[in-house]
Structure formats: structure tokens, C-alpha cells
Amino acid sequence: MASSSSSIFSGAKFSPILAPFNTGDSRRSRCLIKENKVRFNPTSSRLSSNRVRVEAQSLIPYNGLWAQQTTNRGRLKRNIVLGQQRAIFRKEATGISLSQGRSFCLTCKRTQHGIRRSLPSAFVDRTSFSLSRSPFTLSLRKHSQILNATVGPEEPHAAGTAWPDDIVAERQDVDLLPPEIDSAELEAFLGYELPSHPKLHRGQLKNGLRYLILPNKVPPNRFEAHMEVHVGSIDEEDDEQGIAHMIEHVAFLGSKKREKLLGTGARSNAYTDFHHTVFHIHSPTHTKDSEDDLFPSVLDALNEIAFHPKFLSSRVEKERRAILSELQMMNTIEYRVDCQLLQHLHSENKLGRRFPIGLEEQIKKWDVDKIRKFHERWYFPANATLYIVGDIDNIPRIVHNIEAVFGKTGLDNESTPTSPSPGAFGAMANFLVPKLPAGLGGSFSNERTNLADQSKIIKRERHAIRPPVEHDWSLPGASVDLKPPQIFKHELLQNFAINMFCKIPVNKVQTFGDLRNVLMKRIFLSALHFRINTRYKSSNPPFTSVELDHSDSGREGCTVTTLTVTAEPKNWQSAVKVAVQEVRRLKEFGVTRGELTRYMDALLKDSEHLAAMIDNVSSVDNLDFIMESDALGHTVMDQTQGHETLVAVAGTVTLEEVNTVGAKVLEFISDFGRPTAPLPAAIVACVPTKVHVDGVGESDFNITPGEILDSVKLGLLAPIEAEPELEVPKELISKFQLEELTLQRNPRFVSFPGSGVTKLHDNETGITQLRLSNGIPVNYKISTTESRAGVMRLIVGGGRAAETSDSKGAVVVGVRTLSEGGRVGDFSREQVELFCVNHLINCSLESTEEFIAMEFRFTLRDNGMQAAFQLLHMVLERSVWLEDAFDRARQLYLSYFRSIPKSLERATAHKLMTAMLNGDKRFVEPTPKSLQNLNLESVKDAVMSHFVGDNMEVSIVGDFSEEEIEHCILDYLGTVKASHDYAKLPGSEPIVFRQPTAGLQFQQVFLKDTDERACAYIAGPAPNRWGFTVDGDDLFESVSKLSVANDGLLKSEEQLLDGRDMELQRKLRSHPLFFGIAMGLLAEIINSRLFTTVRDSLGLTYDVSFELNLFDRLNLGWYVISVTSTPGKVYKAVDACKSVLRGLHSNQIAPRELDRAKRTLLMRHEAELKSNAYWLNLLAHLQASSVPRKELSCIKELTSLYEAASIEDIYVAYNQLKVDEDYLYSCIGIAGAQAGEDITALSEEEEIEDAFSGVVPVGRGSSMTTRPTT
């Protein structure tokens, strides 16, 4: 869940040191949308691209529960990234997601950024998406959070080490290498192999299929089964480009056995990358209401998908249409930038030309026979690996199931296709023959066939002939010719971005010495990340962001170091100079002893915390990690082993060695031009064709390769000096200051009105409610599921809806200003940042239409919770507002605005929102005119005026004691100055939907582009979560009086309602969360129908979704259908979407549809209940005066409310959506060389919003993998 902000406080992202060293793929794709659809979010009128926010996650290890669902498993990118990543933060009904929960072909999913961790940091602004100035973000795949690695089967074509290098924190007692250790002893120790995971079981069938099994209890009664076939786009011949992806689609969606699992609560998906095709199923261990074992059914489905697909002509044609639509949908400017980066980075091999999505002209040609032959060549058991992780008690039984299902595949009655001629690439004997390491923990000797005999039985081995991937390494003396900088110009680019790449071979992490080297590099680069941001944040830096990524890529088979600089075009030369200058400074002078101590400590604390959470890591995260490690050749350890080995090597690290090892990573930049320096693998600049010049307008932007080299040389010649040590505060509020505040303000808990009690505790949920004497309500829940970890959120009523006509943009710019400044009290930004690093705190700020929110993630180790409370206290009492921070915030939103005409999705969504909401500027980005009217005082007042008494609410969830949390609440929240002057709360101007007589129900947007694409949005009014409408109606009152019909629709067996069922339904109708429940189920049902009809049956789109945005405080909501298509099909796609939306009465909802929607939402709810962040969402607004209907029963009775919902209830909710032609708004956006009219002529008053406007895309990952199949 994360995006980035320009705030320094986004922090460096970290993960455990052994996190299977994130593949660099992720970093280089970080600017891409997860799915090429723009979402409307309940928390923002802007599309979720705008809602993409910085995820300031702490060093607290990821346990699989904080994140959104995993995507692109196994081969997804992981790396050490200094930039920020994005994720859509969605406000949901009492924390329940309203998304449809369908499966998607991860193949097509482009950059799937998973869960990331970050260097603890102060205020990150989550309001806008990623225009980050902070080069501190590590974009990690969720599985990279797990401290493991593997000695696994070698895949020479896909080797890499992904090591996120942003883990840091301070430890005053770091044990550096003791002088008594003999160098020979140290060398021997560092040569020892790392221990292997004790519970990981490996085996191999007679037909060559390898399998790995890992018991894991989170979530309970569920398991993951992934079939990885070792074939991808790199294996395609010149006339087969995209055929592996085609087979993935046809095999997956054509499987009848997979379809039979849909009613069981199972989810499935697939993806393809350079080297792999993966089919995966997430399933319950048993069927609902019975003890039927689902393992055999899941394995049977995977067997059919991978090895026995039916290549029916009808399915091939259907998927051909879907893939062609997907190809156009993916072909955004971000994707094109990705392709450019890959082409130049890998100009010497096929990686730069074999993108998994394929070539349109070839996709159109293949017949069934061509597709089948490719399948016969590559899809067989000996060329595949099965991974199973989950709630498994009987490993031998699972092995028996595997043998029973897969054992005969590839042995009996199967022909052996002829392999490609060895002459094509030269014989590479045993290139892919599996190598099983001896003595792996957990293997079954009685289940394994002797490898010596196995060769006599296996009919087919993994292919010995394969096109090798050769690289031109960036090593000293490896090349003498510098490749000239490449320049990619495009009219849709907004900012300047330059990437300098270095490519070296991957070192597998298998020994203590390997681990030690990774640790030292991380420490070194963490210092650089922090320095660049803090050094220039006090002034207005010339860059938007500077990011240094050093990571190993399993997809690319190399380690890639990337320096990425983004800037406003007018500042590009200064930005490059500064970046090179700071790299030189670190290389020449190294890290200081204080930096070594600080960042080493953070790594050890992070590792310790992860080890403590060993029993709370989800199966999908464990599985993703193991799959990645297998591809990279790392040793897999469990979390405890990982921590112990990290502690062992940390004690041998010296400052001199850290600086020596780290300096080598930077030589291709710091020593650029020297004969001994490694040459960059590529230098690629992505620039706009035109730029905005104040007072002039649009002007041509010109740049040459020579100018780029000159700017690098300026950085090499600039004077540098050593980094001074910073004094880091141990506390923000001293004991003396706290005692004084306590005497002055007498903090205490007060009784609830009418109750006479000061504490309300619910035993069933564990939720405690308190009220402080200064008016602040507090909710907390003690949870041990995330060991010694906690989260806290302050919610303040108001947000952008409170902006007045003469202060449009004041709240959003004000929140950004506070984030940009980063100062509290007498402490500098740098000191606050390092205070957060030392205490493992992450803090983020966010503004929405309804609220201002501040969220903290912390560990309870070393007084981390107390430190988080101190920071919150200082923000509320002594926040510092700086003029230069305001200037940066205002410039950021000005850049957002100017980038709107260059984004088809943003421009289309803006036009629709403007039409539907009658031009209300609070639901779009501030205009230049609005920004010009703002000043520091006006934005400060717009934000801080909301911080009044019970207009605020604080919720905390974590592994603390009652005494600990209540002391912190009294000491740091109770001593905040009381403010009960509600008369000063700004009022909200009314929000209205445009009257249908305006004739703006249908809009179009045209964008000039070299390539064709199309998208559309369909939207209309809805009530808010609690049944209030924009017209002032209270639907809840009328709904609660409706009679319960005995219509027989509640039960799938069409049983009549008994007395208990009728009572449950009456309870639901009278419950304040009725509309939240019914609308959530309705969204699931509509999503399923849209996919089945518009995508699968009609073939008009690749991706279509329905979302409900239900506000809590504002008396309105809306629904949005997002659809992507081609210019030739988009109008039909829109009509089809409207027909589905309006067709719920003519095509009645079936009981099975409701049952499936219930299972989806309940399964999601149950899986998330172990997450602190999820409970934080559930607690939101529990005592908020602006959300009076939220009560404890909304949390306690959530499961029973979903179970009680009937089809009639869904129709009650559906009838509140305005879907007739008068109230339904749609806007179609078309891009192409022949597009009707250019949208660049937007007036300043008709502006748009964006989620990743101001940042030039700087990734290359979207071209490495495809989108979700479904």
C-alpha cells in the first residue's frame, strides 16, 4: 500500500537483510500503475491514482498482514530502492474492502509492488501520489520481508540476489570486530554455509517434477499451491513473441477443473515473465460445512492447467481478443519508458527485445497448432516446480497426493516432441537439469527416487538447449567504449528523468561472508539515501527525487545499480550535478561511525522483530520468498536462523570494510571518466518534447548527449567535504517538560455522558474506549498477533470538503507543507528524522475530502511507542510551518495540474468528475489560480483549525499492556492543550450533483499520441455508508421499517426463511451498517457480472471494474465503472457496462452469486483479523462526533451481518444507486495519432487531478511481466 510523496519523511525502505534480496525488477518499474485502471476512492474524489500515497512502513518486519493482496508472486520485483512506491489506500466500510476480489493474470499485471518497508521516518504526506523528493523508498515484494534464503535448484537463466538496501537504525552498543579475533578464524567463519530452513521439504517425482512443501499456520485452514513452469518469453523464437503469455491465458481460463473450485472459496491466478509461467491457487484446506479435502482437487486443477490444457479454438480466439486489449491497455507512457530502459540496458541480449506481452502482429496470426506445439516443447513435469505452503499437518499425505495426481504425467502415453536443434545456440548440456542439494532439512528419503536410477525413468528432462542470456558487464577493464547517453523524447512526458545503469554478475548469498557483504552495502547506501534528502530539504533542491537502487534481478540474471534523478526540465543540469556530487562525497569520505552504529542497529532490531513474528508470516509471503530464492540460488532460512546469522556477522563488521565494500558499488558514478572505472551499462534520459515556461507558455525542450555528459562532469568537479556527525535527540519531550505539562493541564480520563464510567471495555473484541479531559476520544485494542509492534492513527474531521471558495486547495497544500517542513519544536528536520530511525517509527500524513489523518507504525522495543506518542504530541502542540516548505508544496501541486493533459486516464476522469459534481474544485487538483491565492498562514489555518476537541480521534492497536498504553495516552495526549471552541471549526459548503438538465451526461476526451489506447469511466450518485444522501434523505429510517419477505431467496437450496433467519434479516435492516454491508456485497456481484459479460463473453475489454465510494462524514457517495479498451471497441464496452449495471432487475441475482460474494468478503475479513492495521481501520470513527452511527456493533457483528444479508437486501441497496440515463455520467478517453481533439487546451479553471503526475516514470519492470490473466 504505498506511494510516495515528495517528503523526505517517506524514508528509506527496508527489509530483513536476507530478504531474498529483492530483485531489481521492482525498483525499475516503480512508477507504473498496478493495473492500468484509475480507481475512484471513497476517501478522495480523485481517482486512486491520485490517492496513491506514500506508505511509510516501519522497519517492523512485514508479517503478511499489513499489506494488500499479493500479486505477481514469485518473480516479482524486489530491491533496494531509494525512491517511493505507490499503492492505493482505499477507505472501506469498517475496514472491509469493497473491491471485487477477482483473480487476475499477473502476467499482465505490470509492476506489482508488494509490501514495502521503510526506514522509519517522520511525516510522509500520503495525500498525493508519488512525486517524491525522498530517495528513501525501498520497494520490496512482500516475500522479501521474510528472513530466509534457499539452496535450491539452479536456474542459470534466472539468477539474482535481491537485497533491499535500506535497513537502518541506531544501536549504541554495536559490537564491531574485536581485536582478539584472528584473521584466519574470521575467514574460516565467513566461509561457513548458511543454515537451511528446517521445515522446508523438497522432493522429486519419477517424471522429474520437483516439489517443495512448507507447513505454515497463517492463515489457518488455507494453503497456497503454485505451479511454476520454467518457460517464459526468453524461450520464444522470433515468430513466437508473446506465445508463452497466450498459453498462460488459454490454459488457465480454459480449465474446467479450476472453474469447479470457484464455489469453494478458492482464488486463482497466473502470470508470465521472461523465464517463468506461474499458475497459482489459494484455497481452503476443506470444503465449506464438510471435511472434504481440497488438496487433491487443487492439484488436479493445476495438473490440467499446466500439462493437459484443451486448446479449443473458441477459447484461443477469446483470449486473443483479451490479450490484444490488454496490450493496448498496458501501452501507457510508463510502459513505453520501461521498454526503452530495458532495450538500452540489455541491448546486447534478448532481454531488451522479448517482452512477455508480445507483439500485436504475431498475436493475431497464431493458430491452435502453433500454440500447441510450443506447449508440447516446454510444458512437462521435469520442466516445472510445484510449491505448496499452508496449514499442513500431514506432509506424507500431501506427498502422496502429489504423486497420485502428477505421477503419471509425462511417463505414459505421451509423445516426446523434438527439441530445437542444438545448432541454433550451441549445446548446453544439463543447462536446466535439476540439481537437488543433498541433506536438505525435511526431505523424505523414502519418498524420493534415487537420482542415479531416475535418469532411467524420466522420459523427458528439462531442456538442455536454451538461448543463453549474455551480458556486457560493467566491470573495470571489461569495456573501453562508453555508450553515448540515449534520449527518449515523448510529448506525454512531463518531467526530466535520467537513469545511469551499472550491470554486474549476481553473487548468491549462501555463506556468512555473502550475508556480511550485503549487510555492509546496505549500511553504506542507507547513509546516502538519508544524506541526499536531508542535505537539500532545508532549501529548495533542484531535483524532484534522487534514487539509488542496488539490487539483484532474478528476471534479468544480473545485479543492477541504478542512479535515477528526476527534476523539473528547467533544473535538470543542477539536479544531475547534485546527485553525482553526493555520490562522490559518500564514496570519498565514507559513512561516519555514528551512521554505521545507527543503521546497523536498525537492521538488527528489524531482524529481531521479524524473528519474534516467525509464527505470524502468511503462507503467500513465505511461498513468494521461497520461489524467489529458488530462482536466485540463495539459502533459505527461517526467521530465527536469519536473525541469528545476522547478529553473528554484524559483530565482525568494521567501518573501514563498510566504506571499502560500499565504494565499489558507486565507482561507475563517482569515478566516471577514469580509465580504471567501470563503464555504465547505459545512460538513458527520458524527457518531454515541450515544457511550460512562465509567461511564455509551451516551449520546445532540447537536450543532447553531450550536455548530459557535461552535467555529470560538473558533479565530478564540484567541491566536496566530509559529512559532519549529527546530534540525535533521545527524546522530544524531557521528563522535566512532561512534569510541567502534567501540573499545568492535569490530564485525566473523564466519564462518558450518561454513564458515569471513564472506561468502556468490550471483552468480545478487546476494544477499550476512553475520553480525555481535553476532549480527545481514544480507542485502543491489545493485540499480540504482531509481536511487540503497534500502529496509531489520529483522524481529524474536516479535510478538503471544509475548504471555502476563496481557499480551494488550502487543506491539501497545508498537509503537504507540514510534511515538507518536517520540523517540530526546536528540533531540525534531520534530528526528527533520525529520532524516528533510532526508535523505528514511521509516520505519514494524509488529507482526504473528509479527514486529515496522521498514522504511526512503531515497535515497542526501546520505548518505541513512547517515542511515537512524543512525536504526535509535538505535532499537535509545536509543529513548525516554514515558508520554503510551503513553496515546495505549492510547486508540487502546480506540477500536478500541468501534467493532467498528458494523461489519458486523469484527463478522462477529471472531465467526468467535473460534470458529475457540478465543477466542485474540492474534488480535483488545485488550479494555478487557486494556488496563487494561498499563503503560508492561510494553509496553516486551514489545517490546524480542525484540531479541536472531539473533532479529533486517536486509535491504537498493538502488543502493549493496559498500563503501558494508558500511561502514554495520559502523558502525551492528555497534556495536549484543550480546545473546545467548536465555533471556530470551518463550515463546509454544500456538495451537489449536477442536475440532469445540464446535458453533460456523456463526455469525450481526445489525446494526441503515437499509439492508440482508450479508457472510459461511468459514474453516478450513491448514498454514503450510513444511508444518507446528498439530497438530505435518511434512507436508514425507511429501510429499517421494510418488512422481511419470505421469498425463499436467502438459501441456495431455496429453503424458506425460518424464524431465526427472519430475525437475523430484521436485525440487519435495523443495523446502522446495513448500507455498508449490502453495498459491499452488491459491488462483488456487479464486478463478477462485468467480468463475465464485458470481458469474457463479449471480448470488449481486458480490464473492467466496479467500485463504490461511500463516504462516512459527507452525506453522499458514488459508484464508478472503469473500463479499458481499444478506440474501436470502447463505445460498445461502455454500452455493455451500462447494460450490466442496469440489468440486475431483468437478470435477477442468483443465490449462488450472493453466496460467492459473501464468501469473498468474509474470507477477506477473517484473513485480515490478525492485522493491526486492519483493526485500526475497524476502530476508525468509533467515537467520532461527525460519524454518529458508527458503534461497537459495526465491528462485533460484522460476520453475522454479512451472513444475514438476503438477495432482497441487495436490491434495497441497488435501488439507491441512480443508474438511469439522467443521472448516469460517462466519459470516454481516446488516445492516438488520429484522435479527435487535443486535450492540451484545458483552461486553468477546468483542471484535473493525478496520482502520479509529476514524476517521470523511471522503471523498466512493467515490461518484464504480464498482467493478471483474469
From TrEMBL:
Q: Which family does it belong to?
A: Belongs to the peptidase M16 family.
An example of a GO molecular function for this protein is:
metalloendopeptidase activity
* Keywords, alphabetical: Chloroplast, Hydrolase, Metal-binding, Metalloprotease, Plastid, Protease, Transit peptide, Zinc
Q: Which cofactor does it need?
A: Zn(2+)
Q: What is this protein called?
A: Stromal processing peptidase, chloroplastic
Please state where this protein is localized. Answer: Plastid, Chloroplast stroma
- SUPFAM superfamilies cross-referenced by the UniProt entry: LuxS/MPP-like metallohydrolase
